[in-house]
């Protein structure tokens, strides 16, 4: 990776991380407030409506946003073609969703979903208008601008509009309107930052390259959506809106922090990987290091969530959400696996190895459908275990594909999980022992949760900095270098840092 590209990637990570942390903190407050103002059915109805609309989302975009980022040489005509296509398709799918909304009752026997779907369908046209601008910001690694737009829109829409409307008894509509306002503000802010040409273009050549790649990406995204949302569809159909609301909130509690952590990285990694698409050796090295760092971070966090599940549910959602605890514990094992394979998927996108990705996703849909059928008698926990098993299968399939296109052995790929598994096991044991002690003292849930978070963070940092696994040492040394951390022999901490970095280099040379 060139110094200029590495510098942009690091800068992008810094700004994306800052925006992600800010949004995560606000999302916790928003979720906690809304869970107390609204009934579980409200979240279930919005979840069902969102799933229905996402059936059309991937074809409304046709993968044009990924095509803009992935294309090595992008012309002004390509940009105009992408905007023209996205805007027109967004308008068409808004009209289609409005007209076809009543047929949603054929899937779910819930007439109240129909008006929600019709209003939420406005997101198609808003998203179509904004897709090109946000993709250009990502392609050019202008993550500072993107973070400012997204954070500002979240404050206004969710913390302002959403909570206010819920307090005024708008019920489920407070969730709907907050989402639409946020998307509209992102569309406006992204265009102000990107300022691309919006004139329509009629020459087919301007569309050809984008649609050739984007159409396949659209199909892949659609199948991945089916795989991801199959639980929502089946739970809503079999158990109804109440149980779906329980599952949805449990899923959110573990998926939201993982999404925020990985979204920061993935938005920077895809344009970076795309620029390395013709350099297989460099791409393989970056893939391994990226996956090592992500697994090292995600696995301990999710195992900590599994141990602290009771306190997380009671503090964030409230006492009436106790049914979500066992579901959250199972999902905290399943969901991190899907995020860890994220980089393998990005490698396929960057190198345009899309047919194999379609095969993997269709296979997973078949597998998880069968598992849901076999485990449905175990209720929501059974759905969680079905997801866990299917994610293990996904890892195996992607490792086989990475062996084929990046020439990486299975051992090299499996080795990247070792630091995360080791650190996660230690964090889970320590947090469990401390939690057992504090729960026996019958302390408030908030006090126990704070103690769990502090203890988990301390143990995690101690394992990373004092006892780093050999597979992690090279990545740690790289991080210190890229972040511009300088040795300072004039201070005690500076001398400690010098010795630590030298130990990383020496030990790395022996690995």
Walk me through the structure.
This protein is mainly α and 511 residues long. Among the domains are: 239-438, no CATH class; 472-510, no CATH class. It is built from 21 helices and no strands. The chain has helices at 3-37, 40-61, 64-70, 76-100, 113-120, 122-139, 143-167, 172-194, 204-238, 240-275, 280-307, 309-317, 324-340, 342-350, 354-375, 379-405, 410-415, 418-440, 445-466, 470-482, 492-510. Helix 4 packs antiparallel against helix 6, helix 9 runs antiparallel to helix 10 (240-275) and helix 11 packs parallel to helix 18. The longest helix has 36 residues, at 240-275.
Question: Which properties best describe this structure?
Answer:
membrane; single chain; Poly_Biosynth_Transport; 21 helices; Membrane protein involved in the export of O-antigen and teichoic acid; transmembrane helix; disordered C terminus; 511 residues; mainly alpha; transmembrane
Biggest sheet: strands, sense, closure?
none
Alpha-carbon distance between the two ends: 22 Å
Overall, the morphology is globular
Structural class: mainly alpha
Count of distinct strands: 0
Task: Give the helix level as a range of percent.
Answer: over 70%
Strand/helix succession? HHHHHHHHHHHHHHHHHHHHH
Computed Rg: 23 Å
Oligomer: single chain
Average per-residue pLDDT, rounded, comes to 78
Instruction: Point out poorly predicted stretches.
Output: 507-511
Strand content is under 5%
So how many helices?
21
């Amino acid at each position: 990776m060139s110094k200029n590209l590495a510098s942009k990637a690091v800068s992008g990570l810094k700004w994306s991380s800052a925006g992600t942390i800010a949004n995560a903190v606000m999302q916790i407050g928003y979720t906690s407030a809304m869970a107390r103002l609204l009934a579980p059915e409200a979240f279930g109805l919005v979840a069902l409506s969102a799933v229905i609309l996402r059936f059309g989302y991937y074809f409304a975009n046709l993968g044009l946003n990924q095509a803009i980022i992935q294309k090595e040489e992008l012309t002004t005509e390509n940009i105009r073609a992408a905007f023209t296509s996205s805007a027109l398709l967004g308008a068409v799918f808004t009209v289609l969703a409005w007209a076809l909304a009543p047929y949603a009752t054929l899937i779910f026997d819930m007439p109240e979903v129909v008006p929600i779907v019709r209003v939420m369908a406005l997101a198609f046209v808003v998203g179509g208008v904004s897709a090109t601008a946000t993709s250009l910001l990502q392609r050019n690694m202008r993550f500072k601008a993107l973070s400012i737009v997204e954070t500002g829109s979240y404050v206004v829409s969710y913390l302002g509009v959403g909570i206010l409307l819920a307090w005024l008894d708008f019920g489920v509509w407070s969730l709907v309107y907050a989402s639409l306002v946020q998307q509209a503000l992102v569309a406006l802010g992204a265009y102000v930052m990107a300022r691309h040409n919006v004139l329509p273009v009629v020459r087919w050549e301007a569309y050809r390259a984008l649609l050739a790649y984007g159409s396949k990406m659209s199909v892949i995204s659609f199948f991945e959506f089916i795989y991801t949302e199959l639980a929502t569809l089946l739970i809503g159909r079999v158990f109804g809106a109440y149980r779906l609301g329980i599952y949805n909130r449990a899923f959110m509690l573990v998926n939201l922090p993982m999404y925020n952590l990985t979204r920061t990285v993935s938005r920077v990694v895809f344009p970076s990987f795309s620029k390395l698409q013709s350099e297989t050796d460099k791409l393989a090295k970056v893939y391994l290091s990226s996956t090592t760092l992500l697994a090292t971070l995600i696995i301990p966090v999710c195992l900590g969530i599994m141990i602290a599940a009771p306190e997380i549910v009671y503090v964030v959602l409230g006492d009436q959400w106790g049914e979500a605890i066992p579901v959250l514990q199972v999902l905290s094992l399943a969901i991190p696996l899907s995020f860890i394979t994220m980089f393998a998927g990005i490698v396929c996108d960057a190198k345009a190895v899309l047919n194999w990705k379609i095969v993997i996703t269709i296979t997973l849909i078949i597998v998880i459908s069968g598992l849901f059928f076999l485990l449905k008698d175990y209720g929501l926990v059974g759905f969680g275990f079905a997801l866990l098993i299917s994610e293990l299968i996904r890892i195996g399939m992607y490792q086989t594909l990475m062996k084929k296109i990046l020439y990486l052995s299975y051992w090299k790929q499996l080795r990247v999980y070792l630091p995360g598994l080791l650190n996660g096991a230690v964090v889970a044991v320590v947090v469990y022992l401390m939690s057992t002690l504090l729960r026996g003292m019958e302390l408030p849930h908030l006090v126990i949760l704070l103690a769990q978070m502090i203890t988990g963070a301390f143990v995690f940092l101690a394992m990373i900095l004092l006892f780093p696994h050999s597979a992690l040492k090279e990545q740690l040394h790289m991080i210190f270098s890229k972040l511009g951390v300088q040795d300072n022999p004039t201070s005690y901490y500076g001398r400690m840092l010098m010795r630590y970095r030298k130990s990383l280099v020496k030990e790395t040379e022996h690995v």
